[in-house]
Design brief:
By secondary structure, this protein is α/β, with parallel strands linked by helices. The protein has 2 domains: about 10-320, Purple Acid Phosphatase, chain A, domain 2 (4-Layer Sandwich); about 335-530, 5'-nucleotidase,  domain 2 (Alpha-Beta Complex), CATH 3.90.780.10. The chain is built from 15 helices and 27 strands. The strands form 6 sheets. Strands 1, 2, 3, 4, 5, 14, 15 and 16 form an 8-stranded mixed beta sheet that branches. Strands 7-8-10-11-13-12 form a 6-stranded mixed beta sheet, with helices on one face. Strands 21-18-25-20-26 form a 5-stranded mixed beta sheet, sandwiched between helices. β12 (about 260-265) and β13 (about 270-275) form a beta hairpin. The longest helix is centred in the middle third of the chain and has 19 residues, at about 315-335.
């Protein structure tokens, strides 16, 4: 991947001919960093010192700063126009967030010098109070245009619908939207009201156009699939810089989900480029937009920049991170178990099929409460944030996989409720939604060619050592995490129909670490408990 080019040879020309007063804007962007303050390994979890020595590490906030500083300096020095954007989800994903929360996010982002940030759903993980730790401490605007905050005493007037940046004598309008299912995936509370993303973006674009702003970028946190729908439906958007789905786009990487940028015909027929840059600090997006003198986009090009070992981490930020790491290094370094092979916790696996990390966590949950009469375990695929490599497993590894500080919850549910929950798990399969159900004590099949609500079949439970069809009227004991039990990730049926709920209490990371220790050396496996037809 030729990552250092300032212009791509595979540029996507939107119009033949070039006006005399063309304006080119370089957009440097990240999304879904998820507290990867330190560098990461190939599993997207924390890379160790040995990996750094071998040149096997990627990203980390200090590499992000190095590359942004380098490119911004080179481009502005050459008279080019540059903005730096974040498409959301700085929060949640490592012990740095668990320990220091939003104030550290604000400190590091301010040090890098972002021009604007979109709110991500995980910025609400600690409720509006947690969101304020970011909003009250950054030096740049944090925006989201589809949120009605008039009823929120804490957030009212803290989040703008849009921002106008003046760069090179031109006005650049930045509008934003956050996924409307955030109340299911995070904790914004009842006073944050979500409005349709496309409608909101179109309205904000129209408002900016009325003010004479002709260059409008949507900085979104809705996911690649919805970004494409928005591009096709919302008038007035020149380009989309997105996040949420952790999608890699590239013109050179065969594993990419699409080209960088992806072009979608807008409602007026003009093509709208969509760029997003994977996640976890591994890449820096570099999108280059060229407008004619009337403000019409005529060219879009670029490529994500891989932040590998060739990018030297910023020394001052590295020193600051080392200082912050001191109090948590001992906990992270503690070896809790060993695994004989890699435990697959990749997003692409655990949100789509039975994965070995899903089996581990679901099994661990069930083992912890089996003596309480619990026979079925649910684990949401979105709660698994990394894989674990073969060999020694540290507590830091486990906490990277399970950073949310969720606790075990038990309850009783009818078979019909359990089937409805499984239907929820595959209801947004096409979007790789985190609600996909990893299970234990349960087998099921699903067929995504069928309508939502009719995709699940062959649900079996264990009875007297045999697998038998689930009884819709029978009552079963279920264990999951407190987030899912309370309706998170769309599992409202558990909150509404679950009986005798008990928040049992142990942290899911501790439960998983103890299960690994009791079964070491652990052998990862899949056994056909989930079948995609």
């Amino acid at each position: 991947m030729q990552t250092r080019l300032l212009a791509s040879a595979a540029a996507l020309a939107l119009s033949a001919g070039t006006a005399h007063a063309d304006y080119t804007l370089h957009v440097l962007h990240i999304n879904d960093l998820h507290s990867r303050i330190q560098s990461i390994n190939k599993y997207d979890s924390t890379c160790d010192a040995e990996g750094e020595t071998k040149g096997e590490c990627f990203g980390g906030i200090a590499r992000v700063k190095t590359e942004i500083d380098k490119l911004r300096g080179e481009l502005t020095g050459a008279g080019q126009n540059v903005i730096v954007l974040d498409a959301g989800d700085q929060y949640q994903g490592s012990l740095f967030y668990s320990t220091y929360k939003g104030e550290l996010v604000a400190e590091l982002m301010t040090d890098i010098g972002f021009d604007a940030m979109a709110l991500g759903n995980h910025e609400f993980d600690d409720g509006p109070e947690g969101t304020l730790q970011l909003l009250d401490n950054v030096s740049f605007p944090v925006i989201s245009g589809n949120l009605d905050l008039t009823s929120s005493a804490q957030l009212k007037d803290k989040v703008k619908d849009h921002v106008v940046l003046e760069v090179g004598g031109e006005k650049i309008g930045i509008i934003s939207a956050l996924a409307v299912d955030t109340p299911e995936t995070s904790s914004p509370g009842p006073d944050v009201v979500f409005q349709n993303e496309a409608d909101s973006l179109a309205a904000d674009a129209a408002a900016l156009e009325a003010e004479g702003v002709t260059k409008i970028i949507a900085l979104t946190h809705v996911g690649y699939t919805k970004d494409q729908a928005i591009a096709a439906a919302a008038e007035g958007i020149d380009a989309i810089i997105g996040g949420h789905s952790h999608t890699l786009l590239s013109n050179t990487d065969e594993k990419a989900a699409g080209p960088f940028p992806t072009m979608v015909a807008g409602p007026s027929g003009t093509e709208v480029p969509i760029s997003t840059a994977y996640a976890y600090s591994k890449y820096l997006g570099h999108t280059i937009l060229t407008f004619d003198d009337a403000g019409k986009l005529i060219k879009a090009e670029g490529e994500p920049i891989l932040l590998d070992a060739s990018v030297e981490p910023d020394p001052a930020m590295t020193a600051r991170i080392a200082e912050l790491a001191g109090p948590i290094d001992a906990l992270k370094a503690k070896v809790v178990a060993a695994t004989e092979a890699d435990i697959d916790g990749a997003r692409e696996s655990c949100r789509a099929v039975e994965c070995s990390m899903g089996n581990l966590i679901a099994d661990a949950q069930l083992a912890r409460v089996k003596d309480q009469g619990i026979t079925i375990s649910f684990a949401n695929g979105g709660g698994m944030r990394a894989s674990i490599g073969a060999g020694d497993v540290t507590m830091g590894d486990v906490l990277t996989v399970l950073p949310f500080q969720n606790t075990l919850s038990t309850f009783q549910a009818k078979g019909s409720t359990i089937v409805a929950a499984l239907e929820n798990g595959v209801s947004q399969y096409e979007d790789a939604a985190g609600r996909f159900a990893q299970v234990a004590g349960l087998h099921y099949a699903f067929d995504i060619s069928k309508p939502v609500g009719e995709r699940v079949s062959d649900v079996m439970v264990e009875k007297d050592g045999q697998w038998v069809p689930i009884d819709p009227e029978a009552t079963y004991g279920v264990v999951t995490n407190n987030y899912v039990r309370n309706g998170g990730d769309g599992y409202k049926v558990f909150a509404a129909e679950g009986m005798n709920a008990y928040d049992f209490g142990p942290d899911l990371a501790d439960v998983t670490a103890e299960y690994l220790a009791a079964n070491q050396p652990y052998t990862p496996y899949t056994d056909g408990r989930i079948v995609k037809k």
